[in-house]
UniProtKB/TrEMBL annotation:
Name of the protein this chain belongs to: Iron(III) transport system ATP-binding protein
PROSITE patterns: ABC_TRANSPORTER_1, ABC_TRANSPORTER_2
Presence of keyword Nucleotide-binding: yes
Keyword ATP-binding: yes
Amino acid sequence: MNSSAPSAAPVADRPAGDAVPRLALRGLGHAYEGRRVVDDVSAEVAPGEILCLLGPSGCGKSTTLRIAAGVERQDRGEVWLDGACVSDAARHAPPEARGVGLVFQDFALFPHLTVAENVGFGIPRAERSRAEALLSRVGLEGYGPKYPHQLSGGEQQRVALARALAPRPRVMLMDEPFSGLDKRLRDEVRDESLSLLKAEGAGVLLVTHEPEEAMRMADRIALMRDGRIVQVGAPYHIYNHPADLRAAAFFSDLNVIRARARDRQTETPFGRFLTPGLEDGAEVEIVIRPQHLKIDADVGAGAPHPSIANGLPARGRVERARFMGSESLIEVRMEYDGSRLRATVPGAWLPQQGAGLWLSLRRDRCFLFPAGGAAAGHSAAT
């Protein structure tokens, strides 16, 4: 498909209805050598909103970003900017005609231009004073005469951001923009950069493969897998209401308790869980994160558990305990079925191998999925 359709092609108006988003992707599809890497992707970014495309390498998130930028052309679907269609089957505006900003991991600064010249590149000469104003806003006042090789990685990233903001883009597209920085610097530059973008009113579509970064940056997260968006929502919702087992596992370590449904319930080391809607014999996966398992010390072989505030407890023995910095990770072999569960506790606590323990769990922090995680799960607080 030709990627340089005439820029004079007619521009379609966005259908009337909801508030006009800065960026709208509708039913995007794209294939490489017969393999579909973007499959029916739809998303919207509002003014001042940060939407993160989150997913593992190869899931299609960077290709989606390149389609939004106009660097790649989709083989199906539409791209809309501020209510105007810029790419569909009949038209395809080139990147320079879209009014979007691009920031990538490698910064892509011009080494032979000064910092001020980099920021002012591509904007009218009459607006070059904006370069110094933007440098001041990203904490680089007075850096205009310097060259990129004289700057640190974090300073180069700020210059790249200022250059992308100089033309006043309606949409900012960012592909792993902070991953090349060390953690301390990454947190500082990221937070400052995104605050500036929000203040400018730009809609931000940002690609990352790091769940923690997405949780920290995004107003909403679009979780991608195998070319499709499998779940969209605020970070709190995505984390606490995962669409399936793989979605839950992408954000944190998990314990998975496997069982079979019988009479609309299933037996576990922690008692019965209701499994409505599942046929007898269906495999069930009950998921809980390590931080939601509660540990009590054993009070002697055969003795009852001292507290059942969180439901029926289960006994096990310590297989390994490791100090992880702010918390300790305890691996426990359960007596009920020989399964191994992991629990975390704040601070340093390292019980001896073989020591007996009681584990209990919060059912409102559990997720129940059919085996394989194909269907949406639900809280097991029943």
